[in-house]
Amino acid sequence: MKDSTRQRTGFILLAALSLITIIILSMIFTNSRRASVYLIPENYRGWVQIIYNQQSYPPIDISLTKATFRIGSDGVLRTSTPEVSEGIAEDQYYWIDAQGERTPIDTQKLIHGKSVRSSGTDGTEQDSETVAEEFFVGTEEAYKQTPAPSLEDHL
């Protein structure tokens, strides 16, 4: 009887550990996304806006492991890509010069206020077709003193 009880206990323990492992792995993989690589014009400071679902613009450059965002000199990128990817990833931010050389941006000191918002066609904030991802490049003090641009300014 003792061997039978041990086997049953071992089986229950193994089943519980397997279930916990499956749950943890599914949480990891369902919350992950491709890393975003933001290429920002050299020494740019200010708000960056990525405006999605703009049909007359090219899609985001997406590979198996990353999505590359080439920000314009005005801090704006318009793309036909329909929506923002959600989930957890280690994003990278670079200043890029005229020769294509990348300089990493210290995200702890110089990237602030990353968010996603949407706007209706009548200019009201709501769930709609126009979605923008935005963040500020610069010091925290400058971020606090510089209001985010209106999404409608770039439509």
TrEMBL record:
Residues 35-142 form the DUF6843 domain. Keywords: Membrane, Transmembrane, Transmembrane helix. It holds the Pfam family DUF6843. The chain crosses the membrane at residues 12-29. This is DUF6843 domain-containing protein.
